[in-house]
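Supplementary Methods S3. Input chains for the assembly prediction are listed below.
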Amino acid sequence: MKPTDIARPDYFHKVVDCQWACPAHTPVPEYIRLIAAGRYDDAYLVNWKSNVFPGILGRTCDRPCEPACRRGRVEEGSVEHRKSHLKPEPVAICRLKRVTADYKDDIRPRLPKPAATKNGKRIALVGGGPASLTVARDLAPLGYHCVVFEADAKPGGMMRSQIPKFRLPDTVIDEECGYVLDLGVEFRGGTRIDSMKALLGEGYDAVFVGSGAPRGRELDVPGRKEAAAHIHLGIDWLASVSFGHVKSIGRRVVVLGGGNTAMDCCRSARRLGGEEVNVVVRSGFEEMKASPWEKEDAQHEGIPIHNYLVPKEVLHDSGRLTGIVFEKVSARYDEKGRRSLIPTGEPDVSFECDDILVAVGQENAFPWIERDLGIEFDRWGMPVVDAATMASTRPGVFFGGDAAFGPKNIIWAVAHGHDAAISIDRLCRGEDVAQRPPPTFMLISQKMGIHEWNYDNAITTEQRHKVPLKDTVIALKDIRTEVELGFDPALALAEAQRCLNCDVQTVFAERLCIECDACVDICPMDCITFTHDGDEDDLRQRLRAPAPHRTQDLYVSAALKTARIMVKDEDVCLHCGLCAERCPTGAWDMKKSFLEMSHAGDTPRIHLPVHRARAAVAEAAAE
Amino acid sequence: MTYLAKPKLHHPDLPKNALGFTRRDYEGPVSTLCAGCGHDSISAAIIQAFWQLAIPPHRVAKLSGIGCSSKTPTYFLGQSHGFNSVHGRMPSVLTGANAANRDLIYLGVSGDGDSASIGLGQFAHSMRRGVNMVYIVENNGVYGLTKGQFSATADKGSKAKTGFVNEDEPIDLVLLALQLGATFVARSFSGDKEQLVPLIEAAVRHKGAAFIDVVSPCVTFNNHSGSTKSYDYVRAHNDAVNRLDVILKREPIAADYPPGSVQEVMLHDGGLIRLRKLHPEYDPTDRLGAINYLHQRHAAGEVVTGLLYAHPDAADLHDMQNTVTTPLNALSDAELVPGAAALAAFNAALR
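Predicted structure tokens for the full assembly:
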């Protein structure tokens, strides 16, 4: 195999599974170490720079980082788990993010100031949600005049209208949207944009569309129209609840749908008088779109989830909703793995109910964008958007968040916002929008002494800590009482210790290696092998422990003195640093790879001592 | 060395042996030797060999003397019996233990100072008595614990880290063991586990005195140019006479070897050692030939490794002394102390 090029930022970035999985590429281990050190302000700011809404995301993020977390893989098969039959679990990354928001002091003095002088460029941002606010956060300090148009009175978009208050209190939304608006952003609440043409006519230098996916998908079964008074579209109903227009619901409620919106609907219904709330889903429990923890939260509040039931007919009696009938189905997969739901022929299932909440999906809607402006739409009515630059087919118009590629989540909206801000900045400077800035990347040795590292390399075997919850009886009484209490500082420290510091990398310098096997012998996970070269498939079979996960890279050295190579399987490395501690020549070193995405106006920094040393050696050899 | 305990987590696919143990179950506490010490690799090889043989750890007694090498039994087989004895006296303590309880597997671990200097006499007598044991010398040619003076196994002309040249003749423990009647003699290198692990396995299964001299570089005091016990020197001058596989039961040869390149040596318990010969003329059942070959190659500056001599049907101390087959701790008081009448009768038989 070709020796691994560790000077390429992607190589070590990929080893930090959580950061690689995060759409905004938040430096997760970095902020978790800061939490462990009690430096909550610093931890919050690492997050704020990367994902703009740490307090909001720490409660509501879809956490793509957690399924990726190495901790879940290394606990697999360990003695503790075999004995106790516990499930291996990732670090509670998301809830640690909330800790930074909960325990920070006033960080406002450390935030960027509004630009002292404006650069004369005006940017229109349609929608006041996470995507638009991210663009504004990145551009306003650079001197751009950003104008946010929002139909509701307050900023936040779906974070405010669709996420129930028992999960995300208004105070958190106000605070974090406030940090953005305080940068000198003009916010026009209660202003709905009805015509893109008119907006473009106002002479903005760029327009960003972050208006979300505002339309709930309809239920199309007999009886829907007749019983319309008690059938509500999930996201609209949630918004009405959020703004206090709806304060109660019937005693018996059926929620249709298996996504996170359905979970928010059923839990909200429980708090507004719904005593018998049932969730009914077409698919199986495992395939439901809702995050596992949201399903757990619903079940914890006594809400049953019924699977493999397809709505057939709404029952009504002189305009009054009385119930709903479902057909039982089972899933069948064809040879391509596509699923179809086949009726089982069993008797239909019906539920008596007073209200139905329909949360079977969301759609984008752009009735306000005229189709003759050069903004192309595809046959599903979605705008044609470049995934890297967020540019539409009309120069100067950009999309982001749910408006760009359909419903995703907040952290994707933030990532889109950063990308769009870079594009807008480059456009306004007359630079090529397709050119993207490299990330800041640094590789810094953590060695402090013979057995001392600049990080805590002891590995705890503690299980994942649960976030304390408010007592269910109290929580269900008031829809504005937050259910999760968050980690206290002691629990946060204990959970932070479970992080493996995957950004502290094992870096190998072949010219120093004497092939003594010390690293091979000490490695608790059997990651390191010295063997003769071969292609990747062959090598993966010949390592000390098989390396079946091809998405996890092999770190391969150049040939050593004995003509063998060093191969390290990154998959289950604990980053404990024992290889470096046992290495007599310093051929292994633990180096922190700090990677931070460049946002609009950032100057990327590259600091690679290894690379320089290697170049020097090559130079000396050439002479 | 490290201050950290080795984390308990292990690879999800770590295999288990016939007893249901993983290799990690055969480890001891983390080593406190210098980083990169060859001795730690030997400990890892011992762990690997005992795990592969699926030996219940509590059936093993590991004994040592004094020195860097003699510290190592702490770092492997944490569930076994251990005895860290007096400097150079491990062979006597081991012989005594073996005499009392012949059912345990005895593993003596010593160094070049412990066995070739202060304990040379002890070493010699344990070999000639045929004590059923595995005797491993972790041989680095220097006294590491006293900062790197030459030991008795250092080659003449080899240079110390300080530049001082050794003028004394070396003791080759392998040659001594051959002369003294050891019935399994091998040499290996700590940096070559592919050779060392099967050698340890074969030695454990051999009945009688099994001796393995393992060249084990001292990274702190004897791993420089001018040393003949450095990683680089041994790798450059390693003359391996054979490679071996230890096979528990007789099975047909799976691989296709050229004729004359494979030699099988039966073990006393029915298993066998299959040798892939690297030197067609080398015969590991020929004690005299082995001695000659070792002398020749040593004169040429080579380090001969591999299984150098094995006598499959060897007799051990118990056979020669015609001792009771039951370990003493399993005999009743009446059997152990037969009384005055029995003593009188015994004495009378000798008059």
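The interface with chain A takes residues 1-4, 6-14, 24, 30, 34-38, 40-41, 43-44, 190-191, 193, 217, 219-220, 223, 231-232, 235 of chain B (CB under 8 Å). The domain at 23-321 of chain B is CATH 3.40.50.970 (Rossmann fold).
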